[in-house]
Design a protein that fits this description.
single chain; about 290 residues; mainly alpha; two-stranded antiparallel ribbon; two-stranded antiparallel sheet; about 70% helix; globular
């Protein structure tokens, strides 16, 4: 077996470089651009930095693509309707997907009030979907592999759940979601059980958005770690001249298979996040 001296490659650094957030963007090794951090902003005792990062850039790009796709599909549907034509082509596909999210995710899980929440659920679905797909293109970045991004989306869902429940149930009904009345129990025992349930109910309100954030983050970052780690095998064994082509072919085949799986996961995770958000909102729209 012949050996050839090649520069050592830090696979761990390679994985983190392409998956972690940064103040740089580009098409390495051809072109890249870095920017300086803005000065910190002080909000009372808090110190925050509002400098946009690579994930912020790609999240903004995903939002812009969602707007352009919906705007283009809407204009196309208007032209087809004006000519008394049935929806077809790209516009028909987008309309079918929008109706699926509206009817089979939002309204089906929230109930009659689901139509009011449908725009919010659809926004979550398409933003997450486009952001996930951008993470699969060359030189792309996956904003949903950043816990801060998924956490922010989960907090929006939490606000929609709690505020929507407060508006629908009223103060008294909403209080019963924190301190529930136990059917069939009366007197001091019922009061004691209701008080004991308060920390459990509060914890359940916090666990739901936490689960949303961690599930989406974990699934997206894991797929990128697997793909980049498999690519690292080529560099680790690149010094084996006799076997390097075989290693490269096998690794490339595995990466293609994982990429196909990641494409499915990108759509699935957008669906799961939207579905669970609708379920959590629906649970708060009805009395216990």
């Amino acid at each position: 077996m012949m050996l050839m001296q090649t520069p050592e490659v830090d696979v761990g650094e390679l994985v983190l470089h392409h998956s972690a957030d940064a103040y740089t963007i580009g098409f390495e090794p051809f072109w890249s651009y870095s920017w300086q951090r803005w000065p910190d902003t002080h909000l009372g005792p808090l110190t925050v930095n509002l400098t946009p990062t690579k994930h912020v850039v790609f999240l903004t790009l995903a939002a812009a693509l969602v707007f352009l796709v919906m705007w283009s599909a809407g204009k196309s549907l208007e032209r087809q309707k004006a000519h008394q034509q049935a929806p077809k082509g790209f516009a028909n596909a987008i309309e079918a997907l929008v109706l699926f999210v509206r009817n089979d995710i939002a309204i089906a899980n929230i109930g009659p009030a689901g139509a009011k929440f449908a725009p919010f659920i659809m926004s979550l679905f398409f933003l997450i979907l486009f952001a996930n797909l951008l993470g699969l293109v060359p030189w792309g970045a996956a904003p949903m592999s950043n816990l801060a991004v998924t956490g922010a989306l989960a907090l929006l869902v939490m606000a929609a759940v709690e505020i929507g429940g407060l508006v629908k149930l009223g103060p008294k009904g909403y209080w019963h979601t924190i301190c529930p009345s136990i059917p069939g129990m009366h007197g001091p025992g019922a009061v004691a059980i209701s008080i004991a349930m308060i920390p459990i109910e509060i914890m359940s309100k916090l666990v739901k958005p936490f689960a949303l954030a961690v599930r989406l983050f974990g699934n997206m970052v894991a797929g990128h770690f697997v793909i980049l780690s498999l690519f690292g095998i080529i560099f680790l064994f690149g010094h084996l001249v006799v076997w390097n082509w075989a290693i490269g072919v096998v690794t490339a085949a595995l990466v293609v298979a994982i990429m196909a799986l990641e494409l499915f996961v990108a759509v699935l995770q957008a669906y799961v996040f939207a579905l669970l958000s609708a379920v959590f909102i629906g649970l708060m729209q009805h009395e216990h």
